[in-house]
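Q: I have 85 residues here and want to know how they pack in 3D. Can you give me a structure?
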Amino acid sequence: MALQSQLYADMMQACIESGVCIAFLTWGVSDSMSWISAKIRNNVYDIPIKDAAPLLFDAAYQPKPAYFSVQKVLLNALNSMEEKK
């Protein structure tokens, strides 16, 4: 989970720093409905991916550490903007 948290934070930071990013989207809301945790097609076979948990909310819709990492990046960006005023 630490790696996932850092990856989300890095992606959000890159989005903010780019100056052209207008949205930060995920494909789904909670891990319970993630397309990754269902099945993927690999050539001919359907391969279930166990323990796939790629989203910001867990299967019970509770925020994961990645959620709080993104929140922290956004709050830091907001505070930085406020300081520049």
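Q: Anything worth noting?
A: The mean pLDDT is 86. The helical segments are 2-18, 65-84.
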